[in-house]
Please model this.
Amino acid sequence: MDRKIVQNISVDCVILGFDSVEINVLLVERTLKNPDTDETIFSDLTLAGYHIFEDEDLDSAAARIVKDRTGLENISLKQFYSFGALDRLLHPNDQSWIKASNVIFSDRVVTIGYYSLLPSTNLEIMQNGNIVNWYPINGLKGLAYDHDVILQKAIEHLRHKFWHEPIGFELLPNKFTISQMQKLYEFILGTRFDKRNFRKKISQMSYVVPLKEKQKGVAHKPAQLFMFSKDIYDKTRKERFDFFV
Amino acid sequence: MDRKIVQNISVDCVILGFDSVEINVLLVERTLKNPDTDETIFSDLTLAGYHIFEDEDLDSAAARIVKDRTGLENISLKQFYSFGALDRLLHPNDQSWIKASNVIFSDRVVTIGYYSLLPSTNLEIMQNGNIVNWYPINGLKGLAYDHDVILQKAIEHLRHKFWHEPIGFELLPNKFTISQMQKLYEFILGTRFDKRNFRKKISQMSYVVPLKEKQKGVAHKPAQLFMFSKDIYDKTRKERFDFFV
Model:
């Protein structure tokens, strides 16, 4: 047979953080310099990604890559989709970068996407020689490779999960207000909920537990705090049989 | 750096069919023969899988592999998870097969799992020189490579989706009885539903539409037929806000 097989594979990680106002993604600057003159040829932004070593499985590769690129450790990383479009590395900048990097030898690399949801963007980022920063995802474009596509797919994946599962609580602090929760859900789902209806729905969810605690240190009237109980969610699942509504 | 990167990647497809009694998976016989004596060294079963060619993206590779291995065309194939355990190809049979196949050159191959749900096992399978058959998944073990793990993960993935989304209808005929539906859900979810409660829940689902038609050609009293309306499901989604039950 004449057809060659694809022989490159990597992992890319979409690390999302909710700062109580909007959702941000952690990106690494990629700057290609002329090795002779040290002049910048181009500079753009990538997800935290790299190839997989022969001595590590996929989850270990994702954790190692995030640590190497951003310094973040012990964050929950979940596989969500793999990407292998024919043109995902064909932008001239990507081609120049690949040639300079000496790691891969082909125009085709399949990459496995992971995501992480963090309830804060206030984390210590160790730059490890990289320049790493949070960027609001709203309107973000022009990332390296097909990383616009990967980010978009991660958001779609989350939107889908948000409709069906109580995954939003991973992006909220342990103790949260209903208004924080509504803001997050409206942002991800791209929709608006009526404030009273939203509160009413929440009050019907036995697994969103009201606490005897209120917000502290806010200028406005402090709101009540809630927490999510995964135990109660799991226990009541069969009775609910979620999609049977 | 000393560590080598993984340079092999494939696609494996879990094709599931519901025959109104149980769920079956389509498997391909893998038989290694001694090239000199034509004696069988071993024979076992694999999912439909192969490497990705440089001129195809992941979805195209999955469709091409299913067609090449089983003759099935135009079936819906969805990516669900990728697998890269260090030992997934290390069984002696797998090692012998790999050596004989001359396609890959390493102990590490990362594979991207796809699944397909078919409402019947009564399909024309073109064997293309392969021996392909349906096998009930209950108690199935001893597949080639890590295909036991991939099959198990596909079932877990579906179980999770079944709890949260109306995905079961893909495995049911266009027109189905409530008892077929209950059997399928009990099978996938590994649980039992009380018959009356199950019927009551269904009657609350505006998107499971009763038809003015009954079963034909059955020995017992013919049961009423139903169909699933994706339109109604999507339209009522925001009001339901599924996980807010």
Notes: DSSP finds seven helices and nine strands in chain B.
